[in-house]
Amino acid sequence: MSASAPIATRSWKCGAWTVTLTIPQGGPGKAAMCVVEWDPSMPERLTADELEQYRRGRNEALAAIARETGLSIAMAADL
């Protein structure tokens, strides 16, 4: 992660974990990739319910960030 302040950060619960999604600053007209961190550590696998919690939290976080910042956000890969 760069030293500059991120564009946005959102966290949500996923089973026993807290997931934090951060969008770092990017240059004008440049794509930025989200950083996803798991606390206390990244799980080796998720149950079907945990996977649904992750996806719901991720989708809600990205939608809120898009509304608040006016950014166009696209999901290129799915977990």
Q: Can I get a quick summary?
A:
With 79 residues, the chain is α+β, with helices and mostly antiparallel strands.
Content-based structural category: alpha+beta
Shape summary: globular
Listing every helix as H and every strand as E from the N terminus to the C terminus, the arrangement reads EEEH
Using DSSP, what is the number of strands?
3
Low-confidence stretches: none
Largest sheet: 3 strands, antiparallel
Strand order of the largest sheet: 1-2-3
Helix share, percent: 25-40%
> Which percent band covers the strand fraction?
15-25%
Describe this structure in words.
It is a single chain. The protein is an alpha+beta fold and 79 residues long. Helices cover 28% and strands 24% of the residues. The chain has one domain (8-69). The protein contains one helix and three strands; from the N terminus they run βββα. Strands 1-2-3 form a three-stranded antiparallel β-sheet, covered by helices on one side. It starts with 7 loop residues before the first strand and ends in a 10-residue tail after the last helix. 8% of the residues are buried.
